[in-house]
Design a protein that fits this description.
The protein has about 400 residues and is an alpha/beta fold. The chain is built from 16 helices and 13 strands. The strands form 4 sheets. The protein has a 7-stranded mixed β-sheet. Helix 3 packs across helix 12 and helix 7 runs parallel beside helix 8. The chain is globular. It binds 4'-deoxy-4'-aminopyridoxal-5'-phosphate. The site of 4'-deoxy-4'-aminopyridoxal-5'-phosphate has 13 residues, from helix 5.
């Protein structure tokens, strides 16, 4: 044709393709362990009680309306979001931070990428963990970064390849961007320990790289918002080894508030002391990018989350809701491991299922096993062997264990 250059049809997105196959499957006992969304013990989406209460309160607020937000978003949301991820008691860090509202975590990563691409004087190399969330690659490649990877998961030991990670930090061009999962690493469910984090941050500082934290699961991993921001606090506090580089944080409320489709997120750029004067300029440039891309962000979810973060009773309810989700997932990990180990005596060691944290377990099942799980048992997980543990419940965990046992033997 004379209108478009070659437009090739692409294969469906692997995760959303899996969702489509699952929906079409007519087996009544099928199990969805694909997409990373929390399900309750009946396998149903869960509207958090804190969210329900905040929505009711919001609807009754005098003057409630659906007007446009400002370009940088809903200010009460943006400032409360910064306090929750950065530790609100640390005024020094908050004063060095520029924050704007974004289209959830993905929009935050994309905005961070556009901003860095335009203004960062460092290397064009951007390092992702191997493996990582499938979307990271294309988000940054599409902006023009030279996307590389650092070793993370050691498949033999099912633990962190710390030496490989530190080596990659040492060998990367100075001032490279390193994307770090703040907690609940996707897809492996494996987080560095506190000691390992301090080595990683020391090395990041030594080689002057820019840390870009992706925080999509704060509160989801341990059930505690404070625990799950450990790495970010360690990187941004006064005692951090990182003194000269800015630190970027991409924050999502999709999972920890169960607000997946409302696209609630924020971008925070924490500046070193000597760059604080750049705050107004940075904010204005972020605003310009936002104005071009989306004009202004969506209001509803940000208003709901702001209420939860600001209202003492709602906040308390939220912390309880987080524990409900984290504990249910932890109990499913234990059940699955126990069934495989004790009941079915499935070959191999399954302790990693319990040791891992957050939404996912990197099961160690290979592509062929995953295919057979889907074909023969109606149990759906992505081909890497990553299982969304939130898809397990008391009614299906036994069946899933039995199916895994069958494909492993
Ligand atoms: N980062 C990671 C590691 C994720 O797992 C996800 C969601 N799966 C996101 C970012 C982005 O999620 P959202 O855009 O829905 O906030």
């Amino acid at each position: 044709n004379s209108y478009f250059t070659e437009i090739q049809e692409l294969p469906p997105d692997p995760l959303f393709g899996l969702k489509a196959r699952y929906s079409k499957d007519t087996r009544t006992d099928k199990v969805d362990l694909g997409i990373g969304a929390y399900r309750d013990n009946n396998g149903k989406p869960w509207v958090l009680p804190a969210v329900q209460q905040a929505e009711a309160k919001l609807a009754k607020t005098p003057g409630y309306n659906h007007e446009y937000l400002g370009i940088a978003g809903y200010e009460p949301f943006v400032s409360s979001a910064a306090k929750i991820i950065l530790n609100g008691d640390n005024k020094d860090v908050l004063e060095r931070t520029v924050s704007v509202q974004t289209l959830s975590g993905t929009g935050s990563l994309h905005l961070a990428g556009l901003f860095l691409k335009k203004f960062y004087k460092g290397s064009n190399a951007l390092y992702l963990s191997l493996p990582t969330w499938a979307n990271h690659n294309q988000v940054f490649a599409s902006i023009g970064f030279d996307v590389k990877s650092y070793p993370y998961w050691d498949n033999d030991t099912k633990s962190l390849d710390l030496n490989g990670f530190l080596n990659a930090i040492a060998l990367a061009p100075p001032k490279s961007v390193f994307l770090l999962h703040a907690c609940a690493h996707n897809p492996t469910g494996l987080d560095p320990t506190k000691e390992e984090w301090s080595k990683i941050l020391e090395a990041m500082s030594k080689y002057d790289h820019l840390p870009l934290f992706d925080s999509a699961y704060q509160g989801f991993a341990s059930g505690s918002l404070e625990n799950d921001r450990f790495a970010i606090e360690a990187a941004t506090s006064a005692s951090s080894p990182i003194k000269s580089s800015p630190i970027i944080i991409c924050q999502s409320f999709a999972k920890n508030c169960g607000m997946y489709g409302e696209r609630v997120g924020a971008l925070h750029i924490v500046l070193p002391k000597d760059l604080v004067d750049l705050k107004p300029a940075i904010k204005s440039q972020l605003n310009k990018i936002i104005r071009c891309e989306i004009s202004n962000p969506p209001a509803y979810g940000a208003k709901v989350v702001a209420l939860i973060l600001e209202d003492k009773a709602l906040y308390k309810q939220w912390t309880e809701d987080l524990q409900v989700m984290a504990n249910r997932i932890k109990s499913m990990r234990v059940k699955l491991r126990d069934l495989l180990t004790n009941k079915y005596k499935t070959p191999g060691n399954w302790d990693h299922i319990v040791d891992q944290t957050g939404m996912f377990s990197f099961t160690g099942l290979n592509k062929d096993m995953v295919e057979r799980l889907e074909r023969n048992h109606g149990v759906y997980l992505v081909s890497s062997g990553r299982a969304s543990v939130a898809g397990l419940n008391d009614s299906n965990v036994e069946r899933v264990a039995q199916a895994i046992d069958e494909v492993v033997r």
